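User: Predict the structure for this protein chain, please.
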Amino acid sequence: MQRNASLGHWEGGLTSQTKQVCAMNDPALRDRALSKVPEVTLVFWIIKIAATTLGETGGDTVTMTLNWGYLTGTAIFLTLLIALVLAQIVANRFHPFLYWATVVASTTFGTTMADFADRSLGIGYTGGSLLLFGSLMLVPVLWYWFEGTISVDTVSRPKVEAFYWAAITFSQTLGTALGDWIADTGGLGYERGALVFAAGLAVLAGLYYWTNVSRVLLFWAAFILTRPLQHVPTAMNRDSQDTPEVRV
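Assistant: Here is the predicted structure, written as structure tokens:
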């Protein structure tokens, strides 16, 4: 009995060590172990929605409340975003505060950039959404071309991190534009627009649990759709208040 117990203890220790060795020998496991992004769980989505809400509020405060204009706001938040992405790339491991600060910065930039494209460039919500959609689609194409995958589990090297944060930023920006497009140009208003995006997320959840559709594809689709869903209450609150006409 003691021998079996000792053997079981020894096997358990060996298993733990073996997993570490396998993680270093298997490229997929190694990338996951070295990845500088959080695991995608329910907590991830909750924090993501909270972070993007904070980011959008910050973007609207600078461009609308302070009335610094969309171009100035975009320039400010782009500078902040670049600084945080560089810090994220330089870091040798995952830092939760740094990661989520970068997500907030991508949202503030995405908010002001979407408003600048939609309103200041004069191309409207449809033109802005199409422009941002094309930009977003270009990122995974290039990412896959150079790396052979667009999985978030591989975000551990500078080039991959650059593609990842470009995709994150364009996803945030497109999500903002889509929220305004479906509410305004689509004529649904923010309440019914929210129902459309909520239904889209429900479809994605069903595909995740009951099909074998690519988890990578579902992740990026969900990342885009959670943005306009979160954008709705913020936009409704903004539109219900008297705000000065924003400068370009």
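Residues 4 and 137 are 57 Å apart (CA to CA).
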